[in-house]
Design goal:
- By secondary structure, the protein is an alpha/beta fold.
- It has 25 helices and 40 strands.
- A seven-stranded mixed beta sheet has the order 16-15-17-18-25-24-23, with helices on both faces. It has a five-stranded parallel beta sheet with strand order 5-4-6-7-32, with helices on both faces. Strands 35-34-36-37-40 form a five-stranded parallel beta sheet, sandwiched between helices.
- A hairpin with a 5-residue loop joins strand 23 and strand 24.
- Helix 4 packs antiparallel against helix 5 and helix 6 runs parallel beside helix 7.
- The protein starts with a strand and ends with a helix.
- This is RNA-binding protein.
- Keywords: Membrane, Transmembrane, Transmembrane helix.
- Pfam families: BatA, DUF4159.
Length: 939
């Protein structure tokens, strides 16, 4: 029964409203009890002449109050619902709920969860099980069937992923599970974007469905970045969206590695256009600082693009001694070099042809690479400056020619020793035919490039055969002679092309391979060129460094992230390899979600034979009014009782006997209590609530951690303490129980000797009451280990406090904190179990702060009373839990920084020392008194 916007779950109860006239009649016939007074002679005399009156009915306002109270109770029992929603078809053998949780679902994920909860609630009302599957989870994720409560728990625990959806694989699993549940209903909550294999996947899933619920967004507003190119005159970015008849304009911002906004660009999508480009017009020095680009107002992973060294331009100096540049440009030594380098480098040339002036002019502009086209003897002054520049990290690329061949060997500015003379067709060292270029060596930077089989060489400068000639060869001819050689010179690199840069000795300068080879050398010239070359040139794996979350934020690697195998072709974005940066602080590789071929096409609903119900993503706006109506009835009941007390004279100045409520009100109270009282009787028990939990907590030693509310942080804390507990069992006689997560505002803290508190700047600030409980815990002998986990992100030389440090200061500002100092070398912590000079965690370099040992015996001046010499507070920034964390197999979950296996071992030993110190106090320091005690005992 429904009267919009109000409906009733049990409308038959509304017939009880017909009893209101009867209740009114009964209340009118039942007058209130006469007022009673203690014998006052004078007051009786004052009223003796008055006529005695007794009320014959209740006041009208009291009758109205009681009628309204009865009406509210009847309405509450009828289960009224304001703004009711239509129940969805979720009957049959089961409900199969398939939800897209890829990157496109992140902006309105809460709305999608609310929609799925409505479907689960409808399935619960019909008593059918629920199959719940997500299209961006691991292939072995559990899909049920679940009961309604378990399905809700799984739904609320799932978050959007920054990866594409995999509908074919997930739909196939759900279809296989539905084979045992014929006639089930299927609900598809899609993100609205088409993907490869959708038609077959939907046919497999919906073929045998009894009912289908179809939900897609009303409007596809997602915008994704597909490309970011650092060009000559600016930084060009490309974006795509689903086809839309309206025009839209968005702003993209460029950010450096510290999150500071450097530049903006505007992208305009015309009506019906799905692609747009924008340009960031800033100097190339600023463009080289770009670390990421993000679209404003788009909280999803596709709107963020991270950048690595491949997106940064370098300044390249060009130098040639030829005078034919203007007369015959095609024969100029620098003509083909300019054409090859202009798209991805900023070229500079000296104003003077004199090498003594030209080389210093180039070095003053601080180039990353210098290209010399057939430069012979270099003046000694300029040569010394050039050698110093190379040794400090510069890259020198030289091309052979008659001048270089005649200049002789220069071991510091050439990668190999050269033979005197040239090798050419018909010469002294002659070929019978031009030599082609063979496959590039696998150890060089050109290993992943296709060999230019069409390129031939007719003349070259030969290298002297040495023991290391193979290691220094980057490209070979078919007869085995080197075409390109390279060698390290301290921090820099020297490269030699054994041919001229114009098309006189070979056809390489007019081939596409020439451009790719120079581009790869430019990448090597960068500060992180070694890591970038390794990422692109050779197959290997790079550890996760910074990941793009589903909402577009850059976050530390998740436990699911695995090293990225690069160099073997295009690597797809998966849960194990989410988008982000891979590598180390010395060099990273950008792994982005979308590429230049990405097209965002709207999802078209397939042809379905079963009945289809379309719904929209929305929060449940229906409100159950039973609770408010019952509360209103109870309030009126309280007012009725107070009114009866007032009419009986209870609130007058003289003490009066307690007035009794009328029989009708008592009967009404009994009736309400009978309706709403729980069934059964509560048996009296001697045990108090929480006794069982307290006994369990003290039966074994357990390490505890503070629950921050962030599932990722809490899971790492639990895994870290579990790993430390396992190590304690292996190395000591202590066998701690499972780690305990504690709510500092509610849980009892005295059960735990130490509490690990990871500082999360995004978590809510603890209340004053919670901080007071922590203060009391510390005063009673407990210890809190605060871990800001920001040693790596802020750096040892950072001048400003990190967000975690700021939050820690706010917390400590409300605590009675004793004077602190880094752990001194003779502190008990350094020898409690292992001998340790430092206390590293996942990061290394930050000290472990403890209570200062000054005036330890004077307890009157101590803000916090220590227990047996144990510090009540410890502070670190090294992320102890991240180093201790292990998975179910005992494998480390997060890499150490730097990646040193011994650092994790030292971190675990540091944890053992901290636990032993907390459990045994200053027993180690007391050992120094053993000889004196023995002497006093006469032993």
């Amino acid at each position: 029964m429904s009267w919009l916007p109000l409906s009733f779950g049990f409308p038959a109860i509304l017939w009880g409203l017909l009893a209101l006239p009867v209740i009114w009649w009964l209340l009118r016939l039942t007058p209130p009890k006469p007022q009673m007074e203690v014998f006052p002679p004078l007051k009786i005399l004052a009223r003796v002449m008055k006529k005695e009156e007794t009320p014959h009915q209740s006041p009208w306002w009291l009758t109205l109050l009681r009628l309204l109270m009865a009406a509210l109770i009847v309405l509450a029992l009828a289960e009224p619902v304001f703004n009711p929603r239509e129940k969805l078809p979720t009957g049959g053998a089961a409900l199969a709920l398939v939800v897209d949780n890829g990157w496109a679902s992140a902006p309105d994920w809460d709305r999608r969860v609310a929609t799925a909860e409505r479907l689960i609630a409808d399935a619960a009302s019909t008593g059918v099980p629920v199959l719940l599957a997500f299209t961006a989870e691991k292939p072995n994720a559990e899909i049920g069937p679940f009961d309604a409560e378990a399905a809700r728990d799984k739904l609320r625990a799932t978050e959007p992923r920054p990866v594409p959806v995999d509908r074919p694989a997930v739909y196939a699993r759900v279809a296989a599970a539905l084979e045992t549940l014929p006639g089930a209903s299927v609900a598809v909550l899609a993100d609205g974007l088409a993907s490869e294999g959708d038609e077959a996947a939907f046919g497999n899933l919906l073929g045998g469905a009894a009912n289908v619920v179809w939900a897609v967004p009303e409007r596809l507003s997602a915008i994704g970045l597909t490309a970011a190119e650092n060009e000559v005159d600016g930084f060009r970015i490309s974006a795509v969206r689903a086809a839309d008849p309206t025009m839209r304009q968005v702003t993209a911002g460029a950010f450096d590695d510290k999150g500071r906004r450097i530049a903006d660009a505007t992208l305009t999508f015309g009506a019906g256009e799905a692609e747009a480009t924008g340009r960031l017009q800033v100097p190339f020095e600023l463009r080289n600082d770009f670390s990421s680009i993000a679209i404003d107002g788009e909280p999803q992973a596709g709107a963020v693009r991270v950048l690595d060294e491949n997106s940064k331009r370098r300044r390249v100096g060009l130098l040639s001694q030829s005078e034919a540049d203007r007369a015959q440009p095609l024969l100029s030594p620098l003509y083909y070099i300019r054409r090859a380098l202009e798209p991805f480098a900023d070229l500079v040339e000296p104003s003077s042809p004199d090498l003594a002036e030209a080389i210093p002019q180039l070095l003053e502009q601080k180039p990353a690479m210098i290209v010399m086209a057939d430069v012979g003897t270099i003046p000694e002054t300029a040569r010394a400056q050039l050698v110093e520049w190379v040794q400090n990290g510069g890259t020198l690329v030289r091309f052979a020619g008659s001048k270089l061949a005649a200049a002789g060997n220069d071991e510091e500015l050439l990668p190999v020793r050269l033979r005197v003379g040239e090798r050419s067709l018909g010469g002294t060292l002659s070929w019978t035919e031009p030599q082609p270029v063979t496959e590039f060596p696998p150890t060089g930077p050109f290993s992943d490039l296709a060999p230019p089989n069409e390129v031939t060489v007719t003349r070259q400068v030969l290298a002297e055969p040495t023991a290391d000639i193979v290691e220094r060869t980057w490209a070979n001819l078919a007869d085995g002679t080197p075409l390109v050689t390279g060698a390290k010179r301290e921090q820099g690199t020297v490269v030699l092309f054994h041919i001229t840069p114009e098309a006189t000795w070979s056809s390489l300068p007019i081939s596409g391979s020439f451009v790719e080879m120079l581009r790869r050398i430019v990448q090597l010239s960068r500060n992180q060129g070694a890591a970038a070359a390794g990422a692109e040139g050779q197959a290997g794996s790079l550890a996760p460094y910074r990941m793009i979350a589903a909402n577009g934020a850059l976050v530390p690697p998740t436990p699911d992230a695995r090293p990225l195998a690069v160099g073997a072709g295009k690597v797809p974005v998966t849960i194990e390899n989410p988008p982000g940066l891979y590598g180390t602080e010395e060099g990273v590789f950008a792994h982005n979600l979308l590429d230049a071929e990405t097209v965002l096409a709207p999802l078209v609903r397939p042809r379905i034979e079963a009945p289809v119900t379309e719904m929209r993503y929305a929060f449940d706006e229906s409100r159950n009014l039973k609770g408010p109506l019952v509360a209103a009835a109870l309030l009126l009941m309280v007012l009725d009782t107070l009114a009866v007390f007032w009419m009986g004279g209870m609130f007058t100045r003289r003490p009066k006997p307690a007035a009794r409520t009328s029989g009708s009100v008592a009967a009404l109270l009994v009736a309400v209590m009978a309706v709403f009282a729980p069934a059964g009787q509560a048996d009296a028990q001697d045990a108090k609530p929480g006794d069982a939990e307290a006994i369990e907590a003290i039966s074994t030693t357990r390490l505890a951690y503070v629950l921050t509310g962030d599932a990722g942080v809490d899971s790492i804390s639990r895994a870290g303490l579990a790993g430390l507990s396992r190590f304690l069992v292996e190395k000591t006689a202590l066998e701690p129980g499972q780690p305990a997560g504690v709510d500092i505002a509610a849980d009892e803290l005295s059960f735990y000797p130490i509490i690990y508190w990871p500082i999360d700047p995004n978590a809510a600030m603890p209340t004053e009451a919670a901080i007071a409980r922590i203060d009391a815990y510390m005063q009673q002998g407990g210890t809190v280990l605060f871990d800001t986990r920001d040693q790596f992100s802020t750096g040892l030389d950072s001048g400003s406090a990190s967000p975690a440090n700021e939050r820690l200061r706010e917390i400590l500002g409300n605590l009675n904190v004793p004077p602190l100092e880094p752990v001194p070398p003779d502190h008990v912590l350094t020898k409690a179990f292992f001998i340790l000079p430092e206390f590293p965690g996942r990061f290394n370099g930050g000290p472990l702060w403890v209570e200062a040992s000054l005036e330890a015996q004077n307890t009157d001046n101590r803000p916090v009373r220590t227990g047996d010499g144990v510090t009540p507070i410890m502070i670190t920034a090294n992320d102890f839990a991240g180093a201790w964390a292990v998975d179910a197999n005992g494998d480390a979950m997060l890499p150490t920084v730097p990646a040193d296996p011994m650092q994790r071992a030292y971190a675990l030993r540091a944890g053992v020392n901290i636990v032993m110190y907390m459990l045994t106090g200053n027993y180690k320091s007391d050992q120094v008194h053993v000889p004196i005690l023995l002497e006093r005992l006469g032993q």
